[in-house]
Design goal:
It contains 15 helices and 15 strands. By secondary structure, the chain is an alpha/beta fold.
């Protein structure tokens, strides 16, 4: 049921209903029984919610069907551990049927488990409940405390509702009412404002290159020519953006082409931004972003220090954990481009025709603290390049776009999102989609956007107030646990 709350279904009340039912199911159960129920809830969420991962494993993993299904089952089984851990902790530490259990302990423990899932083994903070609320009144909490504050609001409502249904304390429903009314009220809060005196014309090129053909040597120049033809028609744009790894070659292999593209962009007073793969003199590989044309870096030169290098790499897709052990086991672990090195967490904004863009490559857009740390006082836009062709006609790219919208709302910056085959789109500073291209079509998205002036509270404080709040709650949880043990003794 939980998956229905997220894109493309976007029935956001389900993100409240589903954890409410989970809390009802584990009422009066032992910690071990609760863990089993919570684990089953997680299996349901991730079997349906990340089914798109199987598309990439099937199409590009090079593994027998049974092996790919086994690998998918292991991933889902791992992710479900966190909802099982939540249920176990709640019934182990706060088994009492009281308000503290549902209104304070349950939301705090839920956030702890979310944070663990977003950190362990590089993290996979996908399908956080807060993302489903991007179009609900609760989404208005995001500029204050990010997606985690939205999740906290969801779980506080779910916890209060569960307690009310179990104990018939109907007056407590005032808590969800206050939370929703506060969310409605925050809609009128404009933490930042658009700078209408500084309009930028952008063109986002969606090449729609089939993933199975993208890296074939004979397709290199047809792909490059396709992007050039689409770009040539849009030289009047201030910024032209190609998607992640749009150029199917290492940068050092194409010096003449890149110099000519740089010269053409300068001649037309434009900037071209593209994803490209890189290898330095030490044979270290990077997934990078390159700017050409009118930039602060001057004419094109091959210099790794002037590139943005992706920091948060996708496990198995871009690097292989325990590489020496796993690579010999299966073709999956030898996927193309699975030997990248991570760039720094904080890197310089991209300079494009006088504008500053905070970059996030593909998977990185799901890490809100990383994006926040790369926003400066001079940042105009958030830029994310992606290639979701790995996931075909699944729900994965739609969920990815939903996450990108949340970054805009949290930080009050328009998001520019260029992809190979969709969803290519532009949002305003509140996460509302201004324009987008249809998926699986070749095209160019033209838009005029304005940077925003000022910063949201989340930009200044990040998730730290929530960390402190959860730490305080956890302290009380431990105190209640040991107090009740002494009383029982």
């Amino acid at each position: 049921m939980t998956t229905l709350a997220f894109a493309p279904f976007q029935f956001w009340p389900m993100a409240i209903i589903s954890p409410t039912l989970l809390l009802l199911l584990i009422h009066n159960k032992s910690a071990k029984q609760s863990m089993a129920i919570g684990y089953a809830w997680g299996l349901g969420q991730f079997i349906t919610g990340i089914s798109w991962v199987q598309v990439s494993i099937d199409n590009f993993g090079g593994m027998p069907k049974l092996a790919s299904l086994t690998l998918m089952a292991l991933l889902i089984g791992y992710l479900a551990l966190y909802s099982g851990l939540f249920a176990w902790l709640l019934n182990k530490l706060v088994p009492q049927n009281n308000r503290y259990r549902y209104i304070l302990a349950a939301p705090a423990l839920w956030l702890i488990c979310d944070w663990l899932r977003g950190y362990i083994m590089t993290g996979f903070p996908w399908l956080l409940l807060g993302y489903s609320q991007i179009d609900s009144p609760l989404g208005n909490f995001a500029p204050i405390g990010g997606v985690d504050l939205v999740t906290l609001s969801v779980m506080t409502i779910a916890g209060t509702t569960s307690h009310t249904l179990i104990n018939r304390e109907w007056r407590l429903l005032i808590i969800p009412g206050v939370i929703f009314m506060t969310g409605f009220g925050l809609n009128a809060a404009h933490w930042v404002k658009p700078d209408f005196s500084n309009t930028t014309k952008i063109a986002l090129v969606q090449g729609n290159i089939p993933q199975a053909l993208k890296w074939l040597p004979k397709q290199r120049w047809p792909t490059i020519i396709k992007y050039m033809d689409l770009t040539r028609e849009n030289w009047d744009a201030d910024i032209i953006v190609w998607p992640e790894a749009a150029i199917p070659a290492f940068e050092y292999e194409l010096p003449s082409f890149l110099q000519n593209l740089d010269s053409a962009a300068r001649l037309n007073n434009s900037t071209v931004i593209t994803g490209i793969v890189n290898r330095d003199k030490n044979k270290v590989f990077y997934n990078s972003i390159l700017t050409l044309g009118v930039t602060a870096n001057g004419p094109y030169k091959y210099d790794m220090d002037l590139r943005y290098h992706k920091h948060h790499l996708l496990p198995f897709g871009e690097f292989v954990p325990f590489e020496d052990l796993l690579r010999p086991l299966a073709p999956l672990f030898n996927l193309p481009m699975s030997s990248f090195t991570a760039g720094s967490l904080v890197q310089n904004n991209l300079d494009a025709n006088g504008h500053q863009l905070a970059p996030a490559l593909c998977y990185e857009i799901i890490f809100n603290e990383q994006v926040r740390k790369n926003i400066t006082d001079n940042t105009d836009f958030i830029l994310t390049l992606s290639n979701d062709a790995w996931f075909g006609h699944s729900i994965g790219p739609l969920q990815h776009m939903e996450i990108a919208r949340m970054r805009a709302l949290e930080l009050g910056k328009p998001v520019i999102r260029a992809t190979n085959n969709g969803i290519t789109a532009v949002t305003d500073y509140r996460g509302k989609v201004i324009k987008k291209l249809p998926q699986f079509e070749t095209g160019v998205l033209r838009a005029e956007i304005q940077p925003s002036l000022g910063h949201t509270p989340f930009f200044f404080v990040g998730t730290w107030p929530l960390y402190i709040w959860v730490l305080i709650c956890f302290g009380f949880i431990i105190k209640w646990h040991y107090t009740s043990k002494r009383q029982r003794a």
